[in-house]
Amino acid sequence: MVDLSVELGPLVLRNPVLSASGTYGHGLEMCHFTPPEEIGGLVSKTVTLLPRAGNEAPRIAETEVGLLNSIGLENKGIDHYVADVLPDMARADTIVVTNIGGESPDDFREMAARLDGEAAIDAFEVNLSCPNVQGGRLPFATDPKTAREVIAGVRAATSKPIFAKLSPNVARISDLALAVEDGGADAITAVNTVLGMALDWRSARPGIATVQGGYSGPAIKPIALRCAWDCARSVSIPVIGCGGIATADDVLEFLVAGCTAIQLGTACFADPALPGRLVRELAALLAEAGIADVKTIIGTVRDGREILASSGAGSPARARETSNEEGLGAR
Ligand code: SIN
Question: Residues 56-65: pLDDT tens digits?
Answer without folding.
Answer: 999 999 999 9
